[in-house]
Amino acid sequence: MSAEHTPPAGDLPAGSGRAPLDRPAYGFPRRWWTFLAEHPPPGAATINRRWRSPLRGPWLTSVYGLALLVGLPLVFLTGLLDYLAYSPQFGQAFPGDVGWLRLPPFDWPTRPSWLFRLTQGLHVGLGITLIPIVLAKLWSVLPKLFDWPPARSVAQVLERLSLLLLVGGILFEIATGLLDIQYAYLFGFDFYTAHYFGAWVFVAALVVHVSLRLGRMRTALRARSLGRELATPRPATRAEPPDPDRLVAARPGPATMSRRGALALVGGLSLLVAALTVGQHFDGPWRRTALLLPRGRQPGTGPTGFPINRTAAAAGVGAADTGPGWRLTLRSGGHSVTVDRPGLLAMAQHTVTLPIACVEGWSTVQTWTGVRLRDLAALVGADGITAAHVRSLEKAGLFRQAALQANQVLDPDSLLALRVNGVDLTLDHGYPARVIVPALPGVHCTKWVTEIEFRGRAGG
């Protein structure tokens, strides 16, 4: 897209709709505006002379903005739902202490069983898909980032601050989110805490910015026909009339692309990114197309060839920990029962087909066989269950233990799984036993389970 040029403010052509230097502008005293205009930072004039693309203007900026106004709040809301899925009431959602940003207490449901698969898939997948639109939107408003003076009224000061937080917030969320799903932990801070608070900063800036700009966006969208723009070829593409926000180049150059081409390019890139991401949700050949999600690809073949988040070696769990000497300890109040794997296999077995979804966005549907968690609770005499705490053989890590809500323990499809797709679990998939609960985040479907403590009233 072409470079651009904006002449010095004192050389603006008549009828440009921009305030000359000898007038008060937007409510600030004239001497402030004049002083700032006459003392630009080094290189400001040179940078401004580069903005010559005739595509930039209120209409194209508003089209990109409308797409983001629909998509980004959905990414934010699904992120909040995913946070709730981690049961923050048990102190196991990250970050744990969020102060007055604490969400209302909420028991995450087990139905539909694909709920977390949907919310986390949308959060990651839609977030990635919107990246080309975010970059196009930033390109369309790039001159505003170098506008001088930066503000000429209190309203513009607020707008510029909201824009700074908006741009900084979305770039921070995109960068840290992409690094996280690529397992490239390059930050010198806790990802979960920074991503959570960064999202709130971004949304607050978005609300302020939209409240200030919504009227102009509506006017800009109504000013030009989408059908007419899509029918306009590159040779007939012209700059929009001068606008008070100075998005339109004062001396536009020839178009190197039509607005139709710009929308097609950005839309095509978003579709391409989506195509390289969506395979993470499908088992079989489709999963090989998930090139942007390293852990979402198919790692192997056969009944246990589906993805995993953490290997046994990475968790420090070996064959010696899971051999014949392995035992599961069940506790409730002052009661405890110890059972080995043959003992579990001798209990009533149930088979369910359930998805498992990871925080990085990938998911898979498999058929699991094992003992119902509520049957294990009955075995130890647990009654009036309020929660269950599951502990793993894993020695370290954020998710070596998990708390389950009462509805998650009592759901008839909640299992301590011993087999998957008709075969024994592999060590990487949690052998000798792992938890599987409908709609539960994958990291809380604890692998290599060694103890379950049921909280409630102990039976007789």
TrEMBL record:
The lineage of its organism: Bacteria, Bacillati, Actinomycetota, Actinomycetes, Micromonosporales. PANTHER family: BLL0505 PROTEIN (PTHR43032:SF2), PROTEIN-METHIONINE-SULFOXIDE REDUCTASE (PTHR43032). GO terms for cellular component: membrane. InterPro entries: Di-haem_cyt_TM (IPR016174), Mopterin_OxRdtase_euk (IPR008335), OxRdtase_Mopterin-bd_dom (IPR000572), OxRdtase_Mopterin-bd_sf (IPR036374). GO terms for biological process: respiratory electron transport chain. Residues 231-252 are annotated as: Disordered. Residues 326-455 form the Oxidoreductase molybdopterin-binding domain. CDD domains: SO_family_Moco. This is Sulfoxide reductase catalytic subunit YedY. GO terms for molecular function: oxidoreductase activity. The keyword Transmembrane applies. The chain crosses the membrane at residues 59-81, 122-142, 163-185, 197-215, 261-282. Keywords: Membrane, Transmembrane, Transmembrane helix.
